Description:
transmembrane helix
Amino acid sequence: MFRLPFLFIFTGLVSFALFQLFSLFDFATWLTVLGDQPRYPTGWSRIHLLVLGWATMIAMGAVYQLVPVVLQNHGLFSKKLGYVHYCFFAIGTAGLLIGFQTMQVMMIATFATLAFIGILLFAFNIATTLIRANKWDPITISVACSVVYLVLGGTAGMLMGLNFYFQQWGDFHERLLGAHICLAAIGWFGMLITGLSYKMLPMFYLSHGYPVRLQKVVIVLWNAGVLVGASSFLFNGPGWLKWTGLLLIVLAMITYSYHLSQMVKHRHKPNPGVGILWSYSIAHCMTIIGIILVILIPFIPELIVQSRMIVILGWLYLWGWIGLTILSYLSKIVPFLWWTHKYGPKIGKGKMPTMSDLIDDRHVRITLSVIASSLFILLVGLGWNQPMITSVGGSILALSSLFYISMIGYVFAK
């Protein structure tokens, strides 16, 4: 089983490194342009490299690895189908990125379709695995919901790709874009991170005996928020409906953060590792930011209307929560997978390194701090409309991210 998730995680790491190298090469000026003009070829290409090439690749690998663990006695429906899925999705994503960069509409439409076929194969594989196991709990339900949102978000994305070529839908293309972002960014990543956290945090904190009722509340609120938000974009709903969708997501975040505190309260291991501590803190920070936004938006509706603010909020969500959470989890997942693969069969056969020997927690803490600080500088630059500050923040972010991902990659050499 290790090879399949490893293939996705390795491809995700390479995509992440490429994304950071591109930012370094142009001194992160693409981010400055993105602040002024959110929709332009390089911006589309870079955003999809980050979201599809990195975050979604890593997320798919994590699902292939963790779902059989959650289901215990039930393996993945088909590993071969997983490899076929990888081929379609990797080729489709690579072609889509080039299509965006060069604005070749036929290429965008063709490779968006290939990437979507990959998503459908992934959804079929995971759905069949879950249905055959018939073990429904908050973790498997969250994973199932996230995969549904991935398919819906992918459908919206593929239709937009086709419309780039056929140019038939006029204003509906804009509404489809809002629904695509809502379903893919908030539905797919949000449901997956919250659901897998119910497995990850107790596993590394050694938490037992904590109440799980709030997990169901998070699922209901998060789904309601995504559906209300996506519908408001798709059917051109009023501003208050979009705010209602955000309110539901923030209520879900509040419940989720409180539930994480319950897990920590019932821990038997005081230090689960820096990565887990960071993921826990990031969830609380994003909850506070969400609460502030929900309060401010009725008084300052421009916050979700101005393109620059949308870029800032989008970057804050994508990098501030999804990106940092994935990076934090990688510092635990990769050493765990590699140690289990390489040293697991050698247990009791002599001296071997411990899992904590594979990556230095001090370096993880320092690098994550630099990444978070540079992200703050970048956002200040975007908000203040200061290109130099944006470029400096973006370049430090790229450099520190490259160092971090090198640390993760070096685990495979130990």
